[in-house]
């Protein structure tokens, strides 16, 4: 019998098993963690020195129970890094979007977009939206701040898909600024984790309430009765002052 090369492809196998079982409220988190962003746009993990120093352990994720274990054989450094080395598939490419579409009806967002070229490509392959993100600045020093490239991405997609933004949004004013520059929504990562660490579920609720209250106050002070009233003229950027 001719021997077939055995290609154990963690990403595809994982997606095949996990995606069909997912329902709407959990899809975003799962996509963040498993599929497009790190796999496609960042096929390797950045050098996260704090993780190395603290010997960070990758959490066991409920979604992957019985499918994937994050246990790795590594005595030193970051176990997250060791886990990523074992499981990330650097061969992922744009063609995989088509394949993803074929195994799920969930909306697919491309996260980690920082250039107009990638934003345009995302529109070309017809995804449900893009997330302008630098992965919270974890991956690589000197990536641009997301707010500074937001307009470039908004212009590049030309209204064809929604543009979301994350990274460094800490106040309702940050959310307001992003919406004024064309984002449809703003996502937060660490603030809710800090709230969780400080006071569990209540802490998370409090963080979201604070952001909402600050955002509403900003809208009122800028004379915006509704979200649709927030416009580009409500903010001034460095580029504006050069004109
Ligand atoms: C503990 C932690 C784990 C993260 N893991 C991932 C990940 O696996 N993939 C990814 O694309 N982004 C990951 N991120 C980045 C977030 O998805 C998000 O882009 C970032 O936290 C947003 O910035 P903010 O924390 O300043 O709000 C992670 C962030 C944190 C804090």
Describe the protein in words.
- With 243 residues, the chain is an alpha/beta fold.
- Helices cover 48% and strands 7% of the residues.
- The chain contains eleven helices and four strands; from the N terminus they run H-H-H-H-H-H-E-H-E-H-E-H-E-H-H.
- It has helices at 10-18, 24-34, 36-41, 49-54, 79-87, 95-103, 116-124, 146-157, 172-180, 190-221, 238-242; strands at 109-113, 129-132, 163-166, 185-187.
- It has a four-stranded parallel beta sheet with strand order 1-2-3-4, with helices on both faces.
- Helix 7 crosses helix 8 and helix 9 packs across helix 10 (190-221).
- The chain is globular, with a radius of gyration of 20 Å.
- The model is unreliable at 1-8 and 24-41 (pLDDT under 50).
- The structure holds flavin mononucleotide (FMN).
- Residues 32-33, 37-38, 111, 133, 135-136, 166-169, 188-190, 193 line the site of flavin mononucleotide.
């Amino acid at each position: 019998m001719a021997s077939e090369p055995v290609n154990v492809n963690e990403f595809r196998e994982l997606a095949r098993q996990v995606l069909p079982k997912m329902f709407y409220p959990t899809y975003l988190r799962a996509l963040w963690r498993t599929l497009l962003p790190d796999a496609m746009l960042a096929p390797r993990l950045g050098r996260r020195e704090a993780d190395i120093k603290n010997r960070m352990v990758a959490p066991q994720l409920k979604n992957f129970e019985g499918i994937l274990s994050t246990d790795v054989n590594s005595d030193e450094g970051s176990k997250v890094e060791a886990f990523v080395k074992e499981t990330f598939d650097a061969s992922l490419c744009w063609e995989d979007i088509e394949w993803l579409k074929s195994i799920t009806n969930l909306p697919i967002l491309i996260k980690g977009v920082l250039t107009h070229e990638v934003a345009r490509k995302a529109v070309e392959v017809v995804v449900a939206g893009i997330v302008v993100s630098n992965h919270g600045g974890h991956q690589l020093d000197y990536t641009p701040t997301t707010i500074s490239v937001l307009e470039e991405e908004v212009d590049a997609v030309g209204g064809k898909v929604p543009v979301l933004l994350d990274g460094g949004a800490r106040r309702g004013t940050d959310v307001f600024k992003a919406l004024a520059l064309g984002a449809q929504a703003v996502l937060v990562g660490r603030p809710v984790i800090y709230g969780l660490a400080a006071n569990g579920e209540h802490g998370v609720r409090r963080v979201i309430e604070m952001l909402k209250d600050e955002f509403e106050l900003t809208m009122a002070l800028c004379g915006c009765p509704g979200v649709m009233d927030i416009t580009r003229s409500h903010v001034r950027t460095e580029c504006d002052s050069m004109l």
